[in-house]
Amino acid sequence: MLNYTLIADLVKEAEIPVNGIISRAIYQDERVKAVLFGFDTGQELSEHTAAVPAVLTMIKGEALLTLGNDTMDVAAGAWVHMPGHLPHSVRAKTPVVMLLLLLRETAA
């Protein structure tokens, strides 16, 4: 028997709160943690870092993304890999759904 997790529609799975941000872990194992975010327009995750490498995928909406010293507009379909400890922030220009994958190191 195969063991897998399927979420057929991430947009339907995400909540976008009025005047807020919500995050919810949708999957976790020893190698990856998947967190689904919903941002209302104008909401921001201020600059921070993650101790492990991470992947951001924009699922819905438009945002201003800062990675280190670079700031850019991103929209649904954008994908970025970030090394651990890279300062980054996200500000929603429209309602946003974003998937974050935190990649844990495993023993060889």
UniProtKB/TrEMBL annotation:
Transmembrane segments: none annotated. CDD domains: cupin_HP0902-like (cd02230). It comes from the Bacteria. Residues 39-100 form the Cupin type-2 domain. This is Cupin. It comes from Planktothricoides sp. SpSt-374.
